[in-house]
Design goal:
By secondary structure, the protein is an alpha+beta fold. It folds into two domains: 2-90; 109-342, BirA Bifunctional Protein, domain 2. Helices cover 40% and strands 19% of the residues. It has helices at residues 2-18, 22-33, 38-45, 51-90, 109-123, 137-140, 174-183, 225-240, 293-298, 315-323, 336-339, and strands spanning 127-128, 134-136, 166-168, 189-198, 210-220, 246-253, 256-265, 282-291, 307-314. Strands 1-4-5-9-8-7-6 form a seven-stranded mixed sheet, sandwiched between helices. A two-stranded antiparallel ribbon has the order 2-3. A hairpin with a 2-residue loop joins strand 6 and strand 7 (256-265). Helix 2 packs antiparallel against helix 4 (51-90) and helix 5 (109-123) packs across helix 10. The radius of gyration is 43 Å and the shape is rod-shaped. The N and C termini lie far apart (97 Å). The model has no long low-confidence stretch (mean pLDDT 92). Bound molecules: 3,4-dihydroxyphenylalanine. 3,4-dihydroxyphenylalanine (DAH) is lined by residues 171, 173, 215, 253, 256, 287-289, 310-312.
């Protein structure tokens, strides 16, 4: 039997040495250690032996089994280590490789400026309200002191729908009338209304037949032009920087009296003169004025009791100034090369 075991040992050692994966090793284990293997059969034959023989051969067989089991177990550890190293090698991460860029969207720059203006006005207690883009002549013109046939309508020719009383609003000012009428002349108002407007306009780089305005209206007791100046000052400084100056120039609108243009000092050249301010040192950003008594009256507010101011900004114009954009179409044409330039957080000025 000893000889037989020696032969078997040699065969098994050779085979174990040759094996190079865990699966084959497992097959060897079954082949040489299971009940049906040669060793298994030899173990089984012990039953028929005398007690003395059992002792001698039992030990021989057991030692042999332990030896082979150890041999296979050691080989298993060795193979497992090789496989693990192979896996680590394959899954190695090279941290020097450039990262895959994950594209993330960014808000439209026009939307950013509108939200910025909204949050500045909300911090001063204003509501943000909405109004219809398809509007009635009554709200867009008549209640705002622009009766039918008034020459001021020429500058705001727009798209008419069905008949001459339904139109795409040419300004956001009708939301002033709607807000006042909804309040029925009984309570103070602080509101802004950002929204789309439509107008026959020169299609050049700074004008478009569709653009956005941000309307504002404040109605209360004893409101004066200096309240408007103070409000505009807060907005200008928050939007363009602490050292920005503001000024009013006389103007004319049918729904305000007196009317003004609101200018900011040029944030680029600080008044010295450059191409942004057309060498004047000042940039006009909004029309404004004290709400005309006729408009208050038309919209159920008693002008003897109430006063107010109103203003209207071109939202694209604010964004063009703030971000140095020189073509209004950038906002609408969804060209990713342009939009991606604004792939960053908008930081508000204190
Ligand atoms: N609605 C005017 C326009 O479209 C802008 C404007 C001027 C609005 C003066 C106002 C204002 O509320 O008071 O040109």
């Amino acid at each position: 039997m000893e000889e037989k075991l020696n032969d078997l040992r040699k065969i098994i050692i050779n085979k174990v040495n040759e094996v190079n994966n865990l699966n084959d090793l497992n097959n060897l284990k079954v082949e040489y250690l299971s009940k049906k293997s040669e060793i298994g059969i030899l173990s089984n034959s012990l039953k028929e032996m005398s007690i003395e023989d059992k002792k001698v051969y039992g030990k021989l067989i057991n030692d042999f089994k332990n030896e082979i089991t150890n041999l296979i177990d050691n080989k298993k550890v060795e193979l497992e280590e090789i496989e693990l190293n192979k896996k680590l090698e394959n899954e190695k991460i090279d941290i020097n490789l450039p990262a895959t860029k994950i594209p993330i969207g960014s808000p439209n720059i026009l939307e950013c400026i509108v939200e910025e203006v909204e949050s500045i006005f909300m911090s001063m207690g204003y509501d943000v309200v909405d109004g219809p883009e398809v509007e009635e002549d009554k709200y867009n013109f008549e209640l705002l002191n622009i009766p039918k046939g008034h020459p001021a309508r020429d500058a705001q020719d727009t798209f008419y729908i069905e008949d001459e009383n339904i139109l795409l609003r040419s300004q956001t000012s009708p939301v002033q009338a709607r807000t006042m009428l909804a309040k029925k002349g009984t309570e103070p108002i602080r509101m802004i209304c950002p929204g789309k407007t439509y107008r026959r306009d020169d299609d050049d780089a700074t004008h478009s037949h569709q653009f956005m305005q941000i309307e504002g209206l404040l109605v209360d007791k004893d409101v004066s032009l200096s309240d408007l100046k103070g409000t505009f000052d807060v907005l200008a400084k928050k939007l363009f920087g602490k050292d920005i100056q503001t000024r009013f120039r006389p103007s004319y609108y049918q729904f305000t009296e007196p009317s003004v243009e609101m200018d900011i000092s040029c944030f680029n050249c600080h008044g010295k003169g450059c191409n942004i301010c057309k060498n004047s040192g000042w940039i006009t950003v909004s029309g404004a004025g004290m709400v005309h008594p006729n408009v208050l009256k038309n919209c159920s507010y008693n002008p003897e009791e109430w006063t107010g101011f109103a203003f209207g900004f071109g939202a694209e114009r604010l964004a063009m100034l703030k971000y140095g954009i020189n073509d209004i179409r950038v906002f609408y044409n969804t060209d990713l090369r342009e939009v991606k330039n604004f792939d960053r957080e908008v930081v508000e000025n204190d």
